[in-house]
Specification:
Blueprint: E1 4-5, H1 8-28, E2 34-40, H2 44-60, E3 63-69, H3 75-87, E4 93-96, H4 106-111, H5 124-132, H6 144-155, E5 164-168, H7 175-182, E6 190-194, H8 201-206, E7 210-213, E8 231-234, E9 237-240, E10 243-246, E11 258-260, H9 266-283
Parallel strand pairs: 1-11, 2-3, 2-4, 5-6, 5-7, 7-8, 8-11
Antiparallel strand pairs: 9-10
Helix pairs in contact: 1-9, 6-7, 6-9
Length: 284
């Protein structure tokens, strides 16, 4: 068996083509979507990531508003810009790029974002709405990486209803919100959230129909942990000797039924779901 590829690059390209048509219609109705970004400092990874978001915007016709502040920016400077983005009629959704400089309370800044403009879907109000969701379409913005994972599986015909899903890692951007999303009515999966204090991690993974590795530990998931034919999504990434390495051992491809590459799997889907949130906000 050789795993079929969960191709995030190709899927994200399709989604962006769909979004471009929606953006064109919104523009005709005077509701042009606009993505704002706030970058504080010059962290190379953050600079690259923000630049990629603005390239994506240009590709689908979304207006992009970029605000950069120096590393020395004060708490007051940052909160002032957040309020400006909250008030801007051009901005239908925006993100504050993390990490913020040492000494700045990231939670305070994130909580100052207008929940209706929370393009990342990680504001406490929006996470709370996800917790409270009982059925029908979720109206609040969804966390981008978890939503990208679900959409990547859906578009490849991988069934989630009633399936056992092992999620490795309990971070705010992937593990915790993914567990919430998977268990909502309409998706109806059974997630198990695994972390550094979990016992018998390999046994939990062996029982899973879908495995999502998001812990940032190179090649953590081994081939003999995988149920034959399972879908495996490699989300966490680490730089080793100058190369980017995922959480999943490459030999897993000989056992899994589906495997997302890293890079080129979930990452492009995260960016596509960010655009999706911004367009959805403009539509409302």
């Amino acid at each position: 068996m050789v795993a079929q590829k969960l191709d995030g690059l190709a899927t994200a390209k399709t989604i962006k083509a769909e979004l471009a048509k929606q953006v064109s219609k919104l523009r005709e109705n005077g509701r042009a979507p606009g993505l704002g970004t706030l970058l504080v400092g010059s962290d190379p990874g953050s600079v690259s990531y923000v630049a990629g978001k603005h390239r994506d915007c240009a590709e689908v016709g979304i207006e992009s508003i970029r605000i950069d502040l120096p590393e020395s920016a004060s708490r007051a400077d940052i909160l002032r810009v957040v309020q400006e983005l909250n008030d801007s009629k051009q901005v239908t959704g925006y993100i504050v790029q993390l990490p913020l400089p040492v000494g700045i309370d990231a939670n305070e800044v994130l909580e100052a974002i207008d929940p209706a403009k929370d393009a990342d879907g990680l504001h406490p109000v929006n996470l709370g709405k996800l917790v409270m969701h009982t059925g029908g379409e979720i109206q609040s913005p969804l966390p981008c990486t978890p939503n990208g994972i679900v959409e990547l599986l859906r578009r490849h015909g991988v069934e989630l209803k009633g399936k056992e899903v092992a999620v490795i890692g309990r971070g705010l951007t992937v593990g915790r919100p993914l567990g919430l999303l998977l268990s909502t009515k309409g998706i109806d999966a059974t997630p198990t959230l695994l972390h550094s204090s979990s016992k018998s991690i390999p046994d939990h993974i062996r029982a899973a129909d879908v495995v999502v590795a998001a812990l940032g530990k190179p090649h953590f998931v081994k081939p003999d942990w995988i149920k034959p034919g399972a879908a495996v999504l490699d989300v966490g990434i680490t730089r080793v000797d100058g190369k980017l390495v995922g959480d999943v051992d490459p030999e897993v491809a000989a056992v899994a039924g589906w495997l997302s590459p890293n890079p080129g799997g979930v990452g492009p889907m995260t960016r596509a779901m960010l655009l999706h949130n911004v367009v959805k906000m403009a539509g409302r």
